[in-house]
Amino acid sequence: MIEARQILNKIYGYENFRAPQDEIIDCVLKGDNALVIMPTGGGKSLCYQIPSLIRDGIGIIISPLIALMQDQVDALLQMGIKAATINSSMSGDEVNSIFEKITNQELDMLYVAPERVLMGGFLNALEKLPIALFAIDEAHCISQWGHDFRPSYQGLEILATRFANVPRIALTATADEPTRKDIIQKLGLESGKHFITGFDRPNIFYEIVPKDNSKAQITQFLQARHKGDSGIIYCLSRKNVEDMASWLCEIGYNALPYHAGLSPKIRERNQAQFLREENIIMCATIAFGMGIDKPDVRFVIHANIPKNIEAYYQETGRAGRDGEKADALLLYGVSDIAMLRNFIDDTNSPENQKRIEHAKLNAFIGLCESAKCRRQILLEYFGQNAKPCGYCDNCQNPPITYDATIAAQKAISNVYRTGQRFGAGYLIDVLTGKDTDRIIDFGHDKISTFGIGEELKKTEWQSIYRQLIALNYLMVSSENGGISITKDGLDFLKSKSTIMLKAAPSRKEKRAAKSKSAPILNDESQNLFEQLKAKRRELAIEANMPPYIIFHDKTLHEMANAKPQTLDELSEISGVGAQKLERYGAQFLEVLRANI
Ligand code: ADP
Ligand code: ZN
């Protein structure tokens, strides 16, 4: 462990291990197997990289995506570590030259896809060599219960028998109980140690607001908090993605589209640009993101609601991997709910599966409408107890509740009187007494609920309908978005019980919530930070690498605050290892010295 600590200080430039990195490394160094479940950004990579460096032989890291592997290898090379990858995009000659290095025992680490591991010859070649360990990254891919099942991962079962004496370490950020059991059983980890840390991502600010005008809401958010930052905007359809991207470009942002309808070449190019540059907004369907390891994604916006809490947590989890503050903003509207219900019903899944998916969507709507701490709901959903976090919209701006009994009764009887087949927009027009042609055609200007809701504004009625849907008093048809009354809704009407609802947030409150996750630097340091970033960009372009491979934002923030003036002082900054100090120290010092 002394050696492990020296490597951490000298090569990685970090002061201390985070719990439980040291325990995991100790376990693997002793030759034991390990299962590691740690949230994104928790620091899983060190847990197999450091033992690979210390133990005799090469560390084999199995990972699902080429882009991910290349990134990790680039980062390791920057630190002076001998790492390589073999993947399907390489020529036969390239592969052979890496193989030569492997057999000459010149490499510390090799990143490969599971398909490659199982290819004839690969394991035969390894059997003749000392192997430090097998790391199975994104291990949830081995399980059909997991959300990204990859059949080729199942072939990795062979490692436990053919390489019984080589430690196996399986890592993932998301695995519920059945998935965990699968990983343990398939990779033979019963005898090993299991490290399961919490799921919390404390640096992410969660905010969920009703959608009224998404473009205006998004511009306000970007301008107030994320000028020039990298971020992802998730949209429901390809068309939404294209619209969003071209609109953002029109108003002066650097936005790119990503969805399954684009050619693989364009997708790859856009993804590469997003990884390499610092101010790109990726507008994407959920096709984008698996394995995106970009540490400096500063925000994730959902312009439409995701299909369940798991998906939401995974997608928002792509923000702030570097531990710096990041925002997750969700805009939700009733029409999205109808669309998602439609998607679920349109699949060929068995009825039982559909029921589960509808229930999961309901849980998600519950999260949107709840007045409780967002993080608490999310963590409890994953089986972890939590206290109110103080760092989400509901904690910082507790929603005000009021007795909405009469309003709810009006809203529900209005659904009944109009025949349980209209959407919220129409229902609200009836309540507020609008004599539109449509209302007159249907004769709804003659019913008892016409105009009985004039005391409330349209946005207030929208909020009431949304909450009644979230409470399952009303439901949205997946076929046509029409709203109908559930059994709970009828019970509520009959029992004449009271109901408390959240008041629709006023504009002023919305803005107040926006200013809360302010940047941590003062003006002067901010200015220096920008200069350091510019220097980093220049070096990154020169080296043809993403900027974060040189230094993370976090490291530049520390520099801007501490303002080191000598190489020695600079080496104290977290993230500045020996190799990077030698390679880049002087150039960053120049910027720092010019600013004193
Ligand atoms: P994960 O794979 O769990 O998502 P990473 O291994 O990519 O996380 O680590 C996330 C970030 O935290 C990286 O920037 C990494 O260099 C940094 N990190 C990891 N361990 C430490 C540590 N002990 N001290 C400081 N930073 C660390
Ligand atoms: Zn909270």
What would your notes on this structure say?
The protein is α/β, with parallel strands linked by helices and 596 residues long. It folds into 4 domains: 2-196, 3-Layer(aba) Sandwich (Rossmann fold); 204-332 and 370-396, Rossmann fold, CATH 3.40.50; 401-512, Arc Repressor Mutant, subunit A (Orthogonal Bundle), CATH 1.10.10.10; 523-593, DNA polymerase, domain 1 (Orthogonal Bundle), CATH 1.10.150. Helices cover 48% and strands 13% of the residues. The protein has a 7-stranded parallel sheet with strand order 3-4-2-5-6-1-7, with helices on both faces. α25 packs across α27 and α25 packs across α29. The two termini are 39 Å apart. The model is unreliable at 511-518 (pLDDT under 50). The structure holds adenosine-5'-diphosphate and zinc ion. Zinc ion (ZN) binds at residues 373-375, 388-389, 391-392, 394-395.
C-alpha-based Rg, rounded: 27 Å
The low-confidence runs, each spanning 5 or more residues with pLDDT under 50, are 511-518
The number of strands is 17
Rounded mean pLDDT score: 90
**Strands side by side in the biggest sheet:** 3-4-2-5-6-1-7
- Assign the CATH superfamily of the largest domain: P-loop containing nucleotide triphosphate hydrolases
Please give the share of residues in helix.
Answer: 40-55%
Instruction: Please tally the helical runs, counting DSSP H or I stretches of 4 or more residues.
Output: 29
The set of bound ligands, ions and cofactors reads: adenosine-5'-diphosphate, zinc ion
CATH topology category name of the largest domain = Rossmann fold
Summarize the main sheet. Answer: 7 strands, parallel
> What is the SS-derived class?
alpha/beta
Q: Oligomeric status of the shown chains? A: single chain
Distance between the termini: 39 Å
> What is the beta-strand fraction?
5-15%
Tally of structural domains? 4
CATH architectural name of the largest domain: 3-Layer(aba) Sandwich
Broad shape: globular
* Top CATH class of the largest domain: Alpha Beta
